[in-house]
Design a protein that fits this description.
Elements (H helix, E strand, L loop, with lengths): L1 H14 L3 E4 L4 H7 L4 H9 L3 H4 L5 E6 L1 H5 L3 H7 L5 H9 L2 E3 L4 H10 L3 E5 L5 E7 L2 E5 L5 E11 L2 E6 L10 E3 L8 E3 L3 H8 L6
Parallel strand pairs: 1-7, 2-8
Antiparallel strand pairs: 2-3, 4-5, 5-6, 6-7, 7-8, 9-10
Helix pairs in contact: 1-8
């Protein structure tokens, strides 16, 4: 327990990038002002979630960078942005939001008191796991895929944003195939991490 606490303290000193709360800017306004969240903002608009995230909250948003969205096959990403898939997109995006303001210090305290791992319930109604591993704090989605929290404590008037490296997904039975192979290497969402590792998949469609 002491070791986890010490390591988490070091992580916070090294990784936390504090931003003073912008009293006049809510989560959406802050996201719009950060260029690396432009794909996220576009997706929020398509899912009609702008007004929801401008609400009182507070919210904790795990915001994928543009590069994280780029790891999704372009065809799949464009498909998610189509009106017909609005419900699916909404579920994915709200899977990145937790009720309450959980700052980096709160994460450190929660992880220390739960042996380095804690389960969070998202606004989509699904669960994700926050845990310490490999010198950082990661999110593990319901499919067993990981996304590293790379920047913390981007404060807004109605919550806080933490930047993550990859898009996380709630459990689904849909089948995905590697987009960078001629051969068919396919699997459900819970097998994507294994396909990336064993088959070198860089994206899925």
């Amino acid at each position: 327990m002491r070791k986890i606490g010490l390591i988490l303290s070091i992580i916070l000193l090294a990784v936390v990038h504090s931003t003073k709360a912008q009293k006049s800017k809510d989560i959406v306004d802050v996201a719009v002002s950060v260029g690396d969240f432009s794909t996220l903002v576009t997706a929020l608009k398509e899912a009609d979630l702008i007004s929801a995230l401008k609400g009182d909250g507070p919210f904790t948003v795990f915001a994928p960078k543009n590069k994280g969205f780029a790891n999704i096959d372009l065809k799949t990403l464009n498909s998610l942005l189509e009106p017909a898939n609005k419900e699916k997109l909404e579920r994915i995006l709200t899977y990145h939001v937790v009720s309450g303001r959980i700052a980096s210090k709160d994460f450190a305290d929660i992880l220390k008191s739960n042996n380095g791992e804690v389960e969070l319930t998202t606004l989509s109604g699904d669960t994700l796991t926050a845990l310490y591993q490999e010198g950082g704090i990661y999110l593990k989605d319901e499919n067993g895929n990981y996304s590293k929290i790379s920047k913390t404590d981007i404060m807004a008037s109605n919550g806080v944003i933490h930047t993550i490296e990859d898009v996380i997904m709630p459990r689904t039975d849909e089948v995905y195939c590697c987009s960078n192979h001629k051969e068919k290497h396919c699997g459900t969402a819970d097998n994507l991490a294994n396909l990336r590792k064993t088959q070198g998949c860089k994206g899925f469609n």
